[in-house]
Amino acid sequence: DVQLQASGGGLVQTGGSLRLSCAASGLASDDYAIGWFRQAPGKEREGVSCIASSDPTTYYKEDVKGRFTISSDNNKNTLYLQMNSLKPEDTAVYYCAAALGVLWYSDYACEKSTMREYAYWGQGTQVTVSS
Questions:
Q1: Residues 10/129, Cβ–Cβ less than 8 Å
Q2: DSSP assignment letter at 65
Q3: What's the CA dihedral at 122, 105, 80, 124 to 10 degrees?
Q4: Mind listing the pLDDT tens digit for each residue in 4-29?
Q5: Among 35, 45, 107, 119, who pairs with 39 as Cys (CB 3.0-4.6 Å)?
Q6: How many CB atoms lie under 10 A from the CB of residue 114?
Q7: Which residues of the chain have pLDDT under 70?
Q8: Which is nearest to 128 in space by CA: 90, 79, 80, 78?
């Protein structure tokens, strides 16, 4: 069974940094998409950053470009989101998600309409940025 577990959230002041981790187990596919999504109170869930095995590029939501970096370890069992220069508007529950057996562009992987195509979701981790 596929399991995703997000961790690393917390409370940080404006301008601070956090690194989120998503530990994956049970994933075994050469074709995949994986990404970070977030949902603030009263807001819809949105794609933050996504990668896909079929696309050498990386997608970032416009307002996190230059501040956030998505990466994975060499064995692909952990996904990271390094978040720098955090702002109060980054406050949200952050989720990692994975889709297997897909050949997507990275921007497609983070589109709102694509979220329903992710079969696997972590439980989310809370990020709170205080002013």
A1: no
A2: T
A3: -20
A4: 999 999 999 999 999 999 999 888 78
A5: 45
A6: 19
A7: none
A8: 90
